[in-house]
Amino acid sequence: MGDPPSFSIIILFFLTSSHILTLVIATHPLDPLTPFELTQVQTLVKKSHKNVTFHYVGLNDPPKSKVQSWLSSQNRRNNFLNYPRRAFVIARTNSKTREITIDLSKNSILNDKVYNGNGYPMLNNEEQTEAGELPLKYAPFKASIAKRGLNISEVLCDAFTIGWYGEMNTKRVVAIMCYYIDGTVNFYMRPIEGVVVTVDLDEMKIVDYRDRLIVPVPKGGGTDYRESKQNPPFDNGVKGVTILQSGGPSFTIVGNNVRWAIWEFHLAFDMRAGPIISLASIYDHDKDKYRRVMYRGYISELFIPYQDLTEEWYFRTFLDAGDFGFGICAVPLQPSKDCPENAVFLDGYYTTRDGTPAKTENVFCVFERYAGDIMWRHSETVLPGGTVEVRQDVTLVVRMVSTVGNYDYIIDWEFKQSGSIKVTVSLSGILAVKASKYTHKDQTQEELYGTLVAENTIGTRHDHFVNFHLDLDIDGRANSFVKTHLKTKVVPNSDGIPPSSPRKSYWTVVNDVAKSESDAKIRVGSGETELTVVNPNKKTKMGNDIGYRLIPGPAVGPMLLEDDHEQIRGAYSNYNVWVTPYNNSEKWGGGMFVDQSHGDDNLAQWTLREIENKDIVLWYTLGFHHVPVQEDFPIMPTLSGAFELKPTNFFERNPVLKVKSLKPTNWVNCSA
After folding, report:
1. Catalytic residue, candidates 283, 295, 407, 449
2. 442: helix, strand or coil
3. pLDDT grade, residue 81 (50/70/90)?
4. Rounded CA gap, 395 and 402, in Å?
């Protein structure tokens, strides 16, 4: 088994008048931009443009062929020094969006152009905060608060993107919705209904104000979820649990490269996507080499359309990654709570509004998981003396949590010794609720668009459609997408001669290789039971195409009309599965600029190209329909969905046949 790249990480500390800057030197073509490189970008862009704001700064992905060439080189360290590092920047200046490509190696701007298409870039944190503070100084808003008998000092406001509903010309505006704190941290449960403030982000001023109706603000009692604020009786039935690895972790992390068991992969942080898994490869003992499974995998977009049609709610149809940045919204993970005691933590860096690098500490955790699961087993009772063989299932997990407003998304990339990759999306946090005059369901007379979960509180129905970009390279770049139909066959009874079997039917499989993108659009549950990416150019000793199968999650799809404006923008959710030819510029299922986009630059537009025996990308959408219930109040128990990528004739035999049983661990007697 070959050794991983053993590049050292050089860390220098520069003490300035305002802060300490940590410099991490990149050592891999797919490493995220370092704080030094982010500062380099800031300097170059500000030198070229005045009054500029930054909305995205990330690695300009190098061509796959160049990465592969670098990986194959004998002296990666020296070759990397000559490798062109480039950054891609989205910025705003003079009310225009600019796309800028920077050659970091030459410290120069390669390309700088104005984007003239539909849609706007991600909101940065600072402009959201500034916009949310404007109503608190606005006389008509203060009058509305006083009219409701509320204290302006207890009001908090938040920015919402507004979608697109057929307008020909738009400005970069957001809607500001406000909440009442007054003794609880759970302000999302106390909306001030009926008031909408519209703010122009470029001019940073209020351009429209509406106070349509007065509805009671839900009570604050019983909404606080903090442990310190709970009253007896408490649920203390579960004793303390800990994770002990007396020999330390089984994985190693060198730079951004992770190696564990038979897996190795590259882990990077992106301010839009969050975690990016690259070059996931698995060691095949029979072939004595690592074999590629996935070149790149990450969350491409999240579409969350709420189902309330009222004036204050109809526009709440968010594309979270492109609107707010899934990575920007990532939060520091809490040791021993978000992640177990045996976890190792990694930091992530992004760019603030003025281009200054910022760090999210503990943005990722990596840990080995064992929850008593069984990898494989068999008991043989027929043989004299019997035989029992069991193997414990230990996996490796990469976790990030992104808190996008009221929702907390827990993302797990789980690598199994069997060769599978399982991806789990878990939802928690706070419901988006609507204030109501009703205190009991029997009082309701009209469509509520949700569930009465507490007095004066309606949990609004909505969806979550999480799209994954999965650039699978199954043992090479040239792959095909195969749909395997399970078909019932009737045993023939020709000319009155009875069949040789007393059975009347059985089922068989019929394989269908997708020729074009349009052939590969799949709604899960529509009959294509087996969906596999294969390498038609390589076969097992038995003659089977090697491949990886997609095991999808629940069959959840959109229920909106396809020509509804919000669905046009979130059209990637029309199908659970899409397959496209690899294109380095096609990274985001919802398009590059999703704020007020028209749906003319998203996955649904890519449908005519050939994909058989090509370098292809699998896009999978994991969906949730959320009908709120009272158990979601005041904070939601975690709800999870998952999919799995599973080896299918990739190996010659069971790859975990020779995995040894775990050695017993001696527990420390803490009471001694």
Report:
1. 407
2. helix
3. low
4. 22
Q: How confident is the model at residue 561 (pLDDT cuts 50, 70, 90)?
A: very high
Joined together, the tokens standing for residue 45 give 């862009």
CA distances to 291, 365, 509, 559, 589 from 5, in Å: 16, 21, 43, 48, 32
The predicted structure's pLDDT at residue 3: 38
How many Cβ atoms sit within 10 Å of the Cβ of residue 610? 13
Among 207, 194, 210, which residue's Cα sits nearest to residue 131? 207
Query: What element of type H or E holds 173?
Result: strand 173-180
Task: Give pLDDT, residue 19.
Answer: 35
SS3 for 567? helix
> 143: helix, coil or strand?
helix
Which among 398, 340, 339 has a CA at the least distance from the CA of 366? Answer: 398
pTM: 0.94
Alpha-carbon distance of 624 to 553, in angstroms, equals 10
Among residues 276, 317, 332, the alpha carbon closest in space to that of 300 is found at 276
Tell me, rounded to whole angstroms, the distance of Cα 580 from its chain centroid. 20
Residue 302: is its pLDDT beyond 60? yes
Q: How many CA atoms lie within 13 A of 480 on its CB side?
A: 16
Task: Check residue 4 and give its pLDDT.
Answer: 35
320 is catalytic: yes
3-state secondary structure of 42: helix
Give the Cα separation of 113 and 253 in Å (integer). Answer: 38
Distance separating alpha carbons of residues 477 and 471, to the nearest angstrom: 9
For residues 229 and 202, the answer to whether their CB atoms sit within 8 Å is no
Largest CA distance in the chain: 96
Q: Please count the residues of the chain.
A: 672
Lowest mean pLDDT among 80-84, 227-231, 548-552: 80-84
Euclidean distance between CA atoms 196 and 211, whole angstroms: 7
Cα–Cα distance measured from residue 552 to residue 639, given in angstroms and rounded to the nearest whole number: 17
| 138 catalytic residue (yes or no) | no
Q: Which of 326, 367, 368, 369 is nearest to 348 (CA)?
A: 326
Q: Which of 270, 320, 323, 412 is catalytic?
A: 320
